[in-house]
Amino acid sequence: MITAGRLRLRHIETADLPHLAGWINDPTVRAGIGPYLPRSVPNQVKWFEKMLALPPDEQWFVIEVQEGGAWQMIGNCGFFAIDRHAQTVEVGIMIGERARWGQGYGTKTMLLLNELAFNTLNVNRIFLRVNENNLGAIRCYEKAGYRHEVRQRQAALVNGNYIDLLIMGTVRDEWLADKMRLSE
Asked: Of 105, 5, 101, 2, whose CA–CA distance to 59 is shortest?
């Protein structure tokens, strides 16, 4: 497990799959992320089995917060598309518990993922894709040091509407400079 105060990341377990399917089946949650169709628990099991066959660096985490001594699952996150030659990685995150939106957990998770990617995976660049209408996520990424890099016009289809897809990223030098500035 990776712990930072009242937040921790742990690998996904089989018992977590109904929770994950519930989030993906929530149209409000799904509108802000990649999957555009609901998933059944058996489909989540197939996804989980495929994920377990990936290298450990690309196996996703559950995001948990501690309340009253107990840990509560609020989302998931992870890395994919690791390019060892160019030292880049794509990151993804979903805060599935809507009651937890806007409380800073996404930003804290992204900061923890930045530490993990730069210090453990030894990458030079982390990037992500986000729908232009996911304003809360965009603010979260900006707070975590991500900059706007590319706007792909009408590259996503959400609820029958074409919207722009944004690519945001951060590189090691920016991350180190941000860390130094914040520690002064």
From this structure: 2
- The residue type at 16: D
Other residues' Cβ atoms within 10 Å of the Cβ of residue 118: 21
Q: Which residues neighbour 59 within 8 Å (Cβ) at sequence distance 6 or greater?
A: 11, 12, 51, 52, 78
The domain in which residue 153 lies consists of: 2-183
Q: What does pLDDT average to over the chain?
A: 92
Tokens of 143: 């707070």
Host H or E run for residue 16: none
Is the pLDDT reported for residue 181 higher than 90? no
Cα 14 from Cα 34, distance rounded (Å) = 22
Rounded to two decimals, what is the model's pTM?
0.92
The tens digit of pLDDT for each residue in 7-58 reads: 999 999 999 999 999 998 898 888 777 777 778 888 889 999 999 999 999 9
With contact defined as beta carbons under 8 Å apart, do 87 and 124 qualify?
yes
CATH of the domain at 107: 3.40.630.30
How many CB atoms are closer than 10 A to CB 73? Answer: 19
d(CA 12, CA 16): 6
Total number of domains constituting the chain? 1
